[in-house]
């Protein structure tokens, strides 16, 4: 469902809720109208509404949601809000809410459930479903195995299409987003797919082997989520089979899971890197939000003190030439912007799978060349402005040289930092800006003030 449509419906209901929450309106029975309007919405719309409400009103509206919708609404909520609602639900409510969920949806948050609810849920499952759920949970959440659903329909290659059609009629309802059947051998090893369009358009006495598509490569269960999204984008897939390291079919990934993944990554990328965790509830209590943000403010403060310490090492130069204090923020600022440009390009390329080890040398030389050329261009501009402003050729030459040094440093750090952080398992989109700014500030101040100390201050003394 379109995000704009969800927002429009939510805004209409919020306007109605505003009048309901006015003094005396709740006692007048207006909540009955709200309950009716609320449960006419899609679970995703209800989830979006809950995310727009402060905690007290959110709890009241959650109580108005029909119990049969609880599970689907929980699936569409962010982790933090879902966890807060789960904490307020008793065991019976939770078991009722998750009873009819698809296994891939249940796998998304079963580990957030209380231990008793988790145990009872697993115990209530039949052996096959329990094994399927454990299979999904055995893979990281950001992998193909963690994204997959186990509700697949498989057929053998040696049967006729007539047999397949009769099998489907007996099977009854097909799983959601089924656009093809998966062809396997008797050991469940993946062989290909049988598109439903081919099935209904082919002669019934043809065998599956004669008409199946063997050109669709299955997705390895350990493939990263970003690779899965790129595969769907490149091949315009609706569903894709997932296999283990031996080629044995484990399940399938559907387009709705990929859309959710892309949306989450987009929201993640939209958050300013310096703010920290991207899953924060806008209406979370004050103390948890304060604690969460304080960590990142502390990191930034530590890096600011480091930059201040570097400036303090050149206190004598600053006392003799106030001009240096006026100009030195320019060098650090230009380095920060240049480094951010390079880092953004590299992170985007990483997300799209465009950074290969064979191309690193070329990318490195290209970014250093870009940084050098920009350094020369803007060093000349800043030098001319500094000479015109202060009438000092030496100051102009020093700031030009410092600018070149720091832009080269920014290009190098902006290129290398995301690669190192990714290798260490750290998301550069979250923590990269803090580290990059530290490097460009420290090198910018040190190069400008250091050169000024060597070439001007010591010469005068």
Keywords:
extended; 67% helix; 6 strands; three-stranded mixed beta sheet; mainly alpha; 6% strand; 461 residues
Low-confidence regions = 270-279
Backbone structural class = mainly alpha
Radius of gyration: 30 Å
* Helical percentage: 55-70%
Q: What is the residue-averaged pLDDT? A: 79
Instruction: Record the strand order, biggest sheet.
Output: 1-2-3
**Ends apart, CA distance between termini:** 73 Å
Description:
This protein is mainly alpha-helical. 67% of the residues lie in helices and 6% in strands. It contains 22 helices and 6 strands. The protein has helices at residues 3-20, 31-39, 43-51, 55-64, 70-76, 79-87, 91-98, 103-109, 115-124, 127-137, 144-147, 161-171, 196-201, 208-211, 225-235, 255-270, 286-312, 315-320, 322-351, 360-390, 393-423, 428-460, and strands at 154-155, 180-184, 190-195, 219-220, 239-243, 249-254. The strands form 2 sheets. A 3-stranded mixed β-sheet has the order 1-2-3. Helix 21 (393-423) runs antiparallel to helix 22. The protein is extended. It starts with a helix and ends with a helix. The model is unreliable at 270-279 (pLDDT under 50).
């Amino acid at each position: 469902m379109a995000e704009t449509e969800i927002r429009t419906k939510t805004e209409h209901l919020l306007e109605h809720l505003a009048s309901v929450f006015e003094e005396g309106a709740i006692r007048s029975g207006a909540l009955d109208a709200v309950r009716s309007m609320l449960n006419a919405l899609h679970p995703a719309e209800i989830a979006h509404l809950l995310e727009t409400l402060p905690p007290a009103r959110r709890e009241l509206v959650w109580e108005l949601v029909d119990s049969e919708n609880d599970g689907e609404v929980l699936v569409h909520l962010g982790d933090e809000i879902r966890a807060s609602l789960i904490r307020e639900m008793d065991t019976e409510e939770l078991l009722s809410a998750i009873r009819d969920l698809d296994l891939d949806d249940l796998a998304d948050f079963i580990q957030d459930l209380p231990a008793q609810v988790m145990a009872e849920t697993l115990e209530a499952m039949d052996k096959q479903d329990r094994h399927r759920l454990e299979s999904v949970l055995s893979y990281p959440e950001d992998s193909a195995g963690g994204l997959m659903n186990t509700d697949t329909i498989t057929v053998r290659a040696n049967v006729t299409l007539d047999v397949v059609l009769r099998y489907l009629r007996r099977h009854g309802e097909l799983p959601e987003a089924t656009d093809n059947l998966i062809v396997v051998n008797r050991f469940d090893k993946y062989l290909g797919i049988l598109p439903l369009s081919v099935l209904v358009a082919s002669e019934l006495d043809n065998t599956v082997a004669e008409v199946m598509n063997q050109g669709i490569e299955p997705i390895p269960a350990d493939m990263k989520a970003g690779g899965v999204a790129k595969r769907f984008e490149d091949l315009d897939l609706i569903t894709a089979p997932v296999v283990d390291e031996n080629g044995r079919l484990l399940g399938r990934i559907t387009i709705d899971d990929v859309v959710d993944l892309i949306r989450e990554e987009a929201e993640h990328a939209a958050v300013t890197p310096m703010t920290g965790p991207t899953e924060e509830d806008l209406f979370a209590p004050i103390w948890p939000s304060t604690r969460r943000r304080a960590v990142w403010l502390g990191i930034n403060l530590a890096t600011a003190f480091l930059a201040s310490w570097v400036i303090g090492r050149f206190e004598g130069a600053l006392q003799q030439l106030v001009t240096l204090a006026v100009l030195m923020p320019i060098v650090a600022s230009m380095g920060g912007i240049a480094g951010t440009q390079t880092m953004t390009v590299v992170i985007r390329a990483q997300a799209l799978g465009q950074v290969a080890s064979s191309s690193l040398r070329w990318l490195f030389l290209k970014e250093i060349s870009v940084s050098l050329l920009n350094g020369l261009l803007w060093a000349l501009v800043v030098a001319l402005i500094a000479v015109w402003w202060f009438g000092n050729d030496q100051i102009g030459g020093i700031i030009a040289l410092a600018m070149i040094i720091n832009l080269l440093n920014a290009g190098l750090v902006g290129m290398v930092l995301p690669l190192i952080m990714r290798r260490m398992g750290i998301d550069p989109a979250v923590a990269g800006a803090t580290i990059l700014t530290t490097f460009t500030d420290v090198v910018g101040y040190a190069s400008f003030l250091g050169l000024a100390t060597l070439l001007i201050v010591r010469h005068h003394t």
